[in-house]
Amino acid sequence: MRCIVIGGGAAGMMSAIAAAKTGAEVLLLEKNEKLGKKIYITGKGRCNVTNDCDPEDFFANIVTNDKFMYSAYYSFDNSMLMDMITNAGCDLKTERGNRVFPVSDHSSDITRTLTNIMKDLGVQVRLNSQVTSLLAENGTITGLKLKNGQTIDGDRVIVATGGLSYASTGSTGDGHKWLTNLGHTVKECKPALVPLTVEEDFYKDLQGLALKNVEVKLYDEFIPEGTIIPKKKKPIYEGFGEMLFTHFGISGPLIISASSYYAKKAYGKRVTLMLDLKPALSMEQLDKRILRDFEENANKSFKNAIGGLLPAKLIPVIIEAAGIDPDKAVNVITREERERLVNTLKGLRFTVTGSRDFNEAIITQGGINVKEVNPSTMESKLVKGLYIVGELLDVDALTGGFNLQVAWSTGHLAGTSINE
Hints:
Elements: E1 2-6, H1 10-21, E2 25-29, H2 37-41, E3 50-51, H3 55-60, E4 62-64, H4 70-75, H5 78-87, E5 92-95, E6 99-102, H6 107-121, E7 124-126, E8 131-137, E9 140-146, E10 151-153, E11 156-159, H7 174-181, E12 186-192, E13 196-198, E14 210-218, E15 237-245, E16 249-251, H8 253-265, E17 271-276, H9 283-296, H10 302-305, H11 315-322, H12 335-346, E18 348-355, E19 363-368, E20 386-388, E21 396-397, H13 402-417
Parallel strand pairs: 1-2, 1-11, 2-7, 11-20
Antiparallel strand pairs: 3-6, 4-21, 5-6, 8-9, 9-10, 12-19, 13-16, 13-18, 14-15, 14-17, 15-16, 17-18
């Protein structure tokens, strides 16, 4: 049996490895000049291989179609992946948040390891080979056509061409086109795990400022300033961690995660994001802390008395948002003004206007409708012998190695299923 894998990224290489282990003749086609181009840039060039979490945490971090992933994950989970890589001679380490990296901190070591495994299994790899279409007859895959006009026959074809994020790595939506020509449908593709743009001008003054240990709440609608958010109004995302101000808005781990829920539930809308700068303190505790600061700086102006509370860049923004005269002596600041300051620190509002595009997105949300794919094998329900894996599918997860695990698991399941 001949199995052709299209795409030499994480899902494609894993598909080829698993397929070769079944005894099939495996040909992997990659349109770039080298394998694993997207792997090279993951984890800032270090490759966040997976997340060493338990299954419950893995599924909790999948934003779209977690149930579709059950068979794939349980047939090849994070520990099986880690064993495969370490047994092939690439040592791994686990860092904060259970994120797994190669000990060397070089993503190229992961690509090299997978390439060596494929070589040992006799996988034939052809680089600079661009596919233009899939070929099928009577509902069964028969092969594919290359850009140079050549036709290659195959009993099984695994498509692993990625989504639309980081087009420079080769993810240009080719697979979506070929699969729709065979009757598949594509759920709307949106950039996810991506920075957000905001309306307020003050973010420009904060450019480059990173905040740690803050909390954000993202809502699915615009809530005007001065409007109290009802308790029954639940945010679509709530998280604690780090964020960063940029020249266009907001970024950093917290915002990147929030963006996936923005894409899923409020894409293209103006919505409200609330930033709690002091999440460890209750309103009352924060008020006491402010009173203490005011007592210690009794003769100072307001703008010079809150340096212990905030980074210098943030002080003018908070003063303006709280509506307090910056030159007012702190010993005459009223209780009402203090209450406004507490509310501002616990709920600085941003109006999210959208997200950056696919060039800055870590992952694509949307893709091939999973109802058209057998979750137990990754085989198309529409075309026999055709398998769809990785970011092509309408499955996406948060950062931390979860998206790569989706690629490894779906690729492995497809490869092992080709003889069924």
